[in-house]
Amino acid sequence: MSNLKNKNILLGVTGGISAYKACELSRLMLKEDAKVNVVMTSNAEKFVSALTFQYLTGNKVSTDMYDISDEKISHIDLADKSDLIIICPATANFISKFANGIADNLLLNILLATKVDIIVCPAMNVNMYENKIIQENIKKLKKNGVIFIEPESGELACGWEGKGRLAEVQNIINFLKKKFKNKKLSKENILITAGATREFLDPVRFISNPSSGIMGLCIAEEFKMRGAKVNIVAGHTDVDLSNFDSYIRINTADEMKNEIAKQLKKYSVIIKVAAVGDYKFKKIKKDKIKKDENKIDFDLEKNTDVLQFIGDKRNKNQILIGFAAETDKVIQNAKKKVKNKNLDFIVANDISKEGSGFGSKSNFTTIISSDGKIDKLGLQTKETIAEKIADKVEKMRQN
Predict the structure, then answer these.
(1) Residue 89, preceding bond cis, omega within 30 degrees?
(2) What is the pLDDT of residues 158-216, one digit of tens each?
């Protein structure tokens, strides 16, 4: 049975060139047995007719805030009967109005009146999307619980190249299906570490690694979809992790360990995804080192082992999951870490494989459990790996 079956979804369409893709989105939602009602802005009607959506959904399309043909107050009625609202596409103008509480059309009134989750799919010129005002408005909405499906990079209708193209419709459908997943992890309080730590030599130089935070983001989204409370402690990332229950940014391995130590016992599941540096400089220079010598030497020392610290301090009711990035003897090395660091299971990634590793959208993965069980997943998207991890945690809680 589809996760969208019998769900009342309100599709809001605003006035952008991508409005035609909302037709395909409505068709695919109906194919998943959802019940779809469409609300269009007046600008949206300049791109796609209301009649098109009426034929596709079999429902009257709402456009007029002052329609008196129905006894009910339209924006309150539509807000109350929806299980979820998705705005696709969302223009810069619409996002800015919504962020500032402006309600000069039916769709904006509905958004202000609803209590259900709101998902926004931006689509616009790359320069508009990257404009500081738009980004501030997006941040403001995220802080208020609005969920964003990020636009993609590529050739735009205006001729520019860059980020701003509406997310692929199938990806939007997949996101919606995840949104209505079971909530079997609703009692879990999850800690996820993500990104790369940085160990500084002086105020402007450091050693680090290419971790992007993509895997951490995928795991955080998956567990949030399943009802868990998600807490993140992150180093440097290339992704936005701020749209979660609690989110703290750190730099060094010591900072990460100290932050985790504050409330370690309150977490029911700990997933250490972050790529923590193995070494740090023995001495940190207060001032920037000048380029006076042809050669310069530095002393390094072993860094704080964050995963070992957690493994030593965890209690028996906590689930602890580690990650390993390996280039050889992947399973052999991962098995040692499971035992030495007191893990329930480890996600071992062979980063020597093509398409796998830091910054990529996939990993060549094997999951190794403390009981010796080995699950060879092979090359999978990071979203799929996140699903496998969440499935495994669910099964562990059922036993």
Answers:
(1) yes
(2) 777 788 899 999 999 988 988 887 788 999 999 999 999 999 999 999 999 999 999 99
Instruction: Give yes or no: 158 in active site.
Output: yes
* pLDDT score of 225: 86
Flag whether the pTM goes above 0.85: no
Residue ranges and CATH numbers for the domains of the chain are 8-179 (3.40.50.1950), 189-398 (3.40.50.10300)
- The number of CA neighbours under 13 Å toward the Cβ of 378 is 0
Nearest to 387 by CA among 165, 130, 175, 75: 175
Between the alpha carbon of residue 31 and those of residues 38, 61, 173, 211, 252, the distances in Å are 16, 19, 10, 38, 48
Q: How far is CA 296 from CA 37, 281, 299, in A?
A: 67, 13, 10
Q: Give me the DSSP letters along 138-199.
A: HHHHHHTT-EE-PPEEEE-TTS-EEEEEPPPHHHHHHHHHHHTS--TTTT-EEEEEESB--E
| Cα 269 to Cα 321: distance, rounded to the nearest angstrom | 8
For 272-302, how does the pLDDT look when each residue is reduced to its tens digit (9 = 90+)? 999 999 999 999 999 998 887 778 888 999 9
The token duo for 71 is: 């006894």
Pairing of strands 189-194, 269-272: parallel
Q: What's the pLDDT band for 116 if we cut at 50, 70, 90?
A: very high
Residue 113 has which token pair? 């009146």
CA angle 382, 396, 366 (to 5 degrees): 35
Separation of alpha carbons 166 and 160, rounded Å? 14
From the list 394, 398, 393, 396, the residue with the least C-alpha distance to 271 is 393
- Beta strands 229-234 and 189-194 are parallel
CA distances from 290 to 121, 202, 204, 283, 300 (A): 48, 10, 11, 16, 20
Catalytic residue among 23, 88, 158, 218: 158
Q: Any idea which residue has 């999307």 for tokens?
A: 129
| End-to-end CA, the chain | 25
Determine whether 182 is exposed, middle or buried from the number of CB atoms within 10 Å of its CB (0-12, 13-18, 19+). exposed
H or E stretch at 84: strand 84-90
